[in-house]
């Protein structure tokens, strides 16, 4: 491979890795859900959430069944990350250590077809 071909191939590998990692981040993320005051009032009026008298005359309500914090599954993400970086390292080694273009392209194809 010529220097320009190597540079292109390395950039392409990085591009594919970034794309796959972004896909994995989206897949293993659970977005936060917060209710507006209007939605909370509707739930109370519909009888889905009960108002409870608290101390000092204030009222409380538990909306935890309807709201959630953002979550991320680090364990599943790390497995994907490890696999992808191993494939990327193999592809980069083949390119930089002078393996033929065809085998480097096969590894790049494997990387592109990796299912998240």
Descriptive key words:
9% strand; 116 residues; mainly alpha; 4 helices; single chain; two-stranded antiparallel ribbon; two-stranded antiparallel sheet
Counting helices, strands and paired strands, the structural category is mainly alpha
Q: Uncertain segments of ≥5 residues (pLDDT<50)?
A: none
Helical proportion, percent range: 55-70%
Strand order of the largest sheet: 1-4
Give the helix tally. 4
CA(first)-CA(last) distance: 30 Å
**Biggest sheet overview:** 2 strands, antiparallel
Number of strands: 4
Instruction: Evaluate the radius of gyration.
Output: 25 Å
Which term fits the overall shape? rod-shaped
Q: Report the β-strand fraction as a percent range.
A: 5-15%
Order of helices and strands: HEHEEEHH
- What is the overall pLDDT average? 90
Question: What does this entry look like structurally?
Answer:
With 116 residues, this protein is mainly alpha-helical. Helices cover 59% and strands 9% of the residues. The chain has four helices and four strands. It has helices at residues 3-27, 37-45, 74-96, 101-112, and strands spanning 29-30, 51-53, 59-61, 71-72. The strands form two sheets. Strands 1-4 form a two-stranded antiparallel ribbon. Strands 2-3 form a two-stranded antiparallel ribbon. Strand 2 and strand 3 form a beta hairpin. Helix 1 (3-27) packs antiparallel against helix 3 and helix 3 packs antiparallel against helix 4 (101-112).
Fold topology:
Blueprint: H1 3-27, E1 29-30, H2 37-45, E2 51-53, E3 59-61, E4 71-72, H3 74-96, H4 101-112
Helix pairs in contact: 1-3, 3-4
